Amino acid sequence: MNTWVIARTTFGDSLRRRVLLIFLLLAFVMLTLALLLNYFTAREQSTIFKSTQLVIILIFGALISITTAVYLVPNEIDRRTIYSVLAKPVQRWEFLLGKFLGGALTVGFMIGLMSLALMLVLSILALKPPSGAADVQQLQEASAGVNVKDWLTRSSAEIMLVIRAVLVIYFQLVVVTAIATTLSLYLAPTVNFGVTAIIWILGQFQDALSGVIEDRTPLGFAVRGVSYVVPHFHDFNIMGSIIHPAQIAKDFDHWGYALGVCSYGLFWSLGVLMIGVLVFDRKEV
Amino acid sequence: MGVAIKAEGLTKRFYQRGEVVAVDQLDLEVMEGEIFGFLGPNGAGKTTTIKMLLGLIFPDAGRAEVLGFPAGAQEMRRVVSYLPENPYFYDYLTGGELLDFYGRLFGLPSAERKKRVDQLLDLVGLRNDKAKQLKQYSKGMMQRVGIAQALINDPKMLIFDEPTSGLDPVAHIEIRNLIESLRDQGKTVFLSSHQLSDVELVCDRICILNFGKMVKAGSVGELTSQGRTEITAKGLSSDTREKLAKLAGSVVEREGAVVVTVTDEASLNTAVDMIRAASGVLISAIPLRRSLEEVFVETIGLAGPGRRIGTMNTLTQDRTA
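^ inputs. structure came back:
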């Protein structure tokens, strides 16, 4: 109960942070710019536009989650709000989980807004035939006016793809938020920002690093160590199945994979937070 | 009257470019229902002690109990409240929302919370500012809402760290009266303050801390008493004046009256008997007191080499807590 009370207050507090609003604004600018780029065909527009937009959401989402999480606990200590809260019958784990949940809610709200914008644009783009001017029948339909049923089918398919992609992105960012929240118990915000960003980037390139893993040099051992410690953020990359769903094997369970990777993120977050709870329990504030 | 706070050998060390003993073997006993003044110069270890009592930091040695619970225990925090020095709260919340937030942390039901919030805002004179965001509050208003949040759970004991810091004189008096009214309600108040005049007026007992050690403790009366009484009388013959001078050492004439100062109770009784026997008029017999400020300065000044008021370099070098 206390966790939720603290989460709600943290959410309200975080939403008023100017730097997050600036990131959100920048993300919207980038999303709009991507829409204005020249595309040769409608298919190209759909694929390149979608991938660009999802990358923008991921990058700005990561910036927002790290920036939010690195200040969650240090701000409370600096501003001394933590004293009046922990002097109440609030368990320390409730406080830490509440802060994390508030941060995760903030990230969810921010990428939710970006996703809504993306869904809106994709719905508008779905007014056009899906594969440019190649299909004569569709061209005729397009010139005859919008077929509402077809449009609804196309746009809802696009929206479901975005929901799946954003869900996976969100759970990836939940892991990032958990890591930054836990590290904030040890590190100053600026150092924490750098460390969390490096962990996230290393996790993104695990595929590239795996080539070095077999190498029995000190570098190989170091990379192997990193690959054990760092969450597999690369597994959260489902861009291929979002942008070119037709090119993925027909029996591939898209939603099953997405939910699986979300569960992986959830377990990772809980594990990291458990370490945080143990540390915070004896931390002097 | 039970014991509200009992600390034995409480010790806290910090390690910042060497070891600093912030609180050193502190023994403390605060009785239920009293206002206890916790005094000391900056860095004496007052806030560190309070933090240990609340479980915000942990002692390196010793133990403490608050209202019969181990310091920092969850059960203890249900019946104790704390107002930190220069409190900061989530300033996007309104005064009403802030109190509601703290009420939720105590698990107060919605209806009770609403009633309590209104009562407390009335009590601290912020009823009309209930819907105003805290960022629009003045420092005095912030301090008052801080006191209100400390009362949200109707605590048995309140720990105030500099509650009147930065307040204007009127607000100052209001807060002082509020603290006195809390004692009248049977609550224990642990008051850490630099406002010695306030402490002298409201506290039953005080202790003075310096460099983490308790250097003086007792009731305000005991500590400020000089053990001397000034007697003023009129209508005395020169013979009686001479007798009084012999008894007290000297006699002073002030505005047509005779003023004599005695140093013990036996002399006081003898002097009063002399005045009455001589058919003089006894105008007053007033025990002489020092101000708490004088006691404080004298105590801190006598605390040890390099620990006198005014030696700021020494003070700032050593004090980190």
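DSSP finds twelve helices and no strands in chain A. Residues 241 and 248 of chain A are 6 Å apart (CA to CA).
thumbs up if we can close this ticket
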